[in-house]
Amino acid sequence: MSQVSIDLSPITRAVDRLGDQLGRQIDSVDTKVGVVRSDLASTRSELAQLKAQFTSWVDEARRTAAVQESSVKLVDLKAQLDREFGHHGVVRRTSTGVLQAFDIGNVSNETVTSVAEELMIQTPRYWLAPCLVALAAWSMDKEDTAERSIREAYARDANKTSLLFALITRRQGRADASARWLRHYLMSLDPTALTREFAVILEATSHSAFGPAGQQLLTETIAKWRLQLRNDADAVDAQIKRWVADIGIRRDVLDAGSYPTLSVLAREWPAAARQLEQASALPKTMDAYEAIRDMSTSVPLVLEDLLDDILDRLVTEYDQEELPLRRNVVYHEAVVEERGDLDRARFRADHVQQALEMTQDILTLQTMAATNPTLVGVGPQTQRLMIGAGVKDFIAGVGRYCANYRADAIATVTLDFKPDHSNYARSYGFKGTRIMSDTPEQIAIKDIQKTWDRTFADYIASVSFKNAWYTKRALIAGGIGIVVLLFNIWAGLVALLIGAGIVYYLGDQEKKRCAKLIADAEAQRGEAAAYTVALYHNAQAELVDAKLCYEKLDSQETELISLIETWPTRGNEEEL
Amino acid sequence: MVEKQRFRLNARVGVETAAPPAVVTKLPPHVARSRRATRSRDILQAVVDIDVATDPATRKQLTDWLKEAYDLRGGGDLVGLFAKCHLGYPYVDHKLAIVGEILEHYTPGDTVQDPFGRARAYARNDAYLFIEIYSDGAVVPVRANGESAV
């Protein structure tokens, strides 16, 4: 029997070469996979950062756009006001001019008459024009024209005409006529639905512009009305609400960047931020009202000047036709003021626009004069008096404002460590855990540690080498070997040998790869947990900080109340 | 001021101007008026004393007196009081139910049943000495000077 010897050495060499080559390639692929993995992790975190930046940018852009839009609209609206009602301005200026010309006596009555008559024709429907004609006719002793003009003015706007002549007769030193006009005016009023020009009465009362008799009539009437209305609990409640809103629009906006960790981890963060923001209104309100209290105002010393100022207000501030436009102006001003935050602008405008209602009850008018003097049309002196009249409601408003946010005060927060709270957490599939802020530190840290231990145990179990890896590959290699075996027994044996070699070699590489992943994970185990613990510590520190800030802001309620209680012009009427 | 620096442009939230839901109850005017009236010095003192009274007899005496004092005030039917607890750790607050004279101290982890539960956030705040709970559901925080805060 001839012996057949087969030299297998070239095949073995070839297998070795192949193995070497394969090994090198696997190594390089492994490195590349590692690089890709770390690239992917950093891309993910960069993407998260980018998303946050983008969201805040979109928000910022939206607000900037809103501010710009409102600024443009404001210019438009003011132009429209000027276009539609600008010609009233001429009549207004002329009325004061005429009175001053009468004082000096340097203008002929004919000129006054011709100017007045011209304006009468140029400004149809405007109540002030016939008043001017009446004044001119008065100076010319034309009783008939004067009477007809007054009747027309009265038909156009009864309240303002009465008030105007009460002021003018007072200015001309006719006390009786002035008192009669005033009484006439007051009689026609309903304290639950005062028209806007009543603010002039508040202004005149605060300066005693109507003289002793008029002053007494006015203070008595207002006191009587107040008492009558304050019996209605709803009317009083409405005033308290106005004061609450007035405090509310002063609240600041919290920058989430000042509590970077807490704002991300704490589940209750929106509520906590709201609480801080609401408390921030207290010092702001105090600053604002201290400034009002300490503001020095100059009151005209000559009665004529004072009355001219009041007359100016009467003829400029309270024309109802302008109200819809002025309400729009208020809204867009609020948008600019709140720097594009439309929700807050709406809240501010809703409150402020109440000053531009057609009719108001005496309590509301006084509260609005105290909180929004410019829109109501009164000066700082009157504002101070009106705050004094509303001391009780203001204090109740402060109490209610504070009680409202304190009712939802948060004592503890839940720190939510989500599966993506850090890069480590994302890479190793962190299980997630929630820790109450009042959990003792040791227990909390132990909890974090345990969660990380579980995370790593699962991760290591998922990446560790399993013998099942061999089965599939051995079956394929075996299959090929058997097929070849069917053709040639030797070639088949060789194929089986080569297959076994390759499978063994690849298995070895895979084992190394798994071992490396495990080693990496083990190396980062400590760092990963330490990072989460550091976040926990930061969040706790920020929480302490936030609580201190809140307590400091919140405690200013007492100071604010004492500021109101000691208000210099506090009304002494004992009310319900 | 540090507080001022912390605030800048961002979020949006409204402000509730109505009275807290817990205090909105339609009361006859004279009851509402009496409820708003300042609490007497004796009432305030009695509430403070109850917290530190360890002797059941003294406590009963004080509770009875309080019940009577509140009846006389005419500000509605008082169910009980809730206040910050000065016993120290682990207790933070306690309730004093007038009916049944139950004094219960709570730790932060305890759940307080309504209507007393609604007074908890107020009890944490130093601005209020104690909180009254009425049978009509009203929860009224009272300042240290005896004035109702809402």
Explain what this protein looks like in three dimensions.
The complex is a heterodimer of chains A (576) and B (150). Chain A is mostly helical and 576 residues long. Chain A has a domain at 12-35 and 411-543. Helices cover 77% and strands 2% of the residues of chain A. Chain A is built from 24 helices and 4 strands. In chain A, the strands form 2 sheets. In chain A, strands 1-2 form a two-stranded antiparallel ribbon. In chain A, strands 3-4 form a two-stranded antiparallel ribbon. Chain A is elongated. With 150 residues, chain B is α+β, with helices and mostly antiparallel strands. Chain B has one domain (26-143). Helix content of chain B is 31%, strand content 19%. In chain B, strands 3-2-1-4-5 form a 5-stranded antiparallel sheet. In chain B, strand 2 and strand 3 form a beta hairpin. The longest helix of chain B has 18 residues, at 56-73. The chains are: A mainly alpha (576), B alpha+beta (150).
Provide a short characterization of the protein structure.
Chain A is mainly alpha-helical and 576 residues long. Chain A is built from 24 helices and 4 strands. In chain A, the strands form 2 sheets. In chain A, strands 1-2 form a two-stranded antiparallel sheet.
Summed up, the domain count of chain B is 1
Radius of gyration of chain B: 17 Å
The average pLDDT score of chain B comes to 78
Helical content class of chain B: 25-40%
Strand order of the largest sheet of chain B: 3-2-1-4-5
What attributes characterize this protein structure?
heterodimer; A: about 575 residues; 24 helices; 4 strands; about 75% helix; about 0% strand; elongated; B: about 150 residues; alpha+beta; 5 helices; 5 strands; disordered N terminus
